[in-house]
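Worked problem 6 (solution included).
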Amino acid sequence: MTPITLIAKAIQRERLKAGMSLSALAKTAGLAKSTLSQLEAGQGNPSVETLWAIASALNVPFSFLFETGTTDKTLIRAGEGEPVASEAAGFTAVLLANCPPGRRRDLYRTSLSGGALRSAEPHPAGTIEHVFVAKGEIRVGPAEELETLSAGDYFRFPGDVAHSYEVLSKEAVILLVMESPV
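Solution. The predicted structure is:
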């Protein structure tokens, strides 16, 4: 599914859940009905501002407009993902992962020394780990499904199975997000 198709389906899904007509959503979001109609048809290239206006009008988090069915693992390499650009500034964003309802997330900046290997026992059932590499290179993931990640790469994997972190460069800095059921 292409990113614009994903956004189109999400806008329509959330509009219908809110019980809003196309005209009502367009008016509330301050958009032309034709613009909204094109977006729901999977056409166009919406800006960050347009998507924020739609999310605000629907009273949903911005990330809901990128929601997909979850899988056990997601790997996004540096330069991958669909950037959403601002109309007014040199700013783009790529949604790596949104937080599903009934979950909590803890965020850590982790510094790792070269050659370090950390083996982790399974966390409580339903735990998901999100790893974004800010600097360096690491090998991470469930024992039989390790991935090598470089700066800019993102990997999501089940944290409720044995997994490990191995530093392949002189040093590494990662953003680690531990997501667990509430």
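Discussion: The domain at 3-69 is CATH 1.10.260.40 (434 Repressor (Amino-terminal Domain)).
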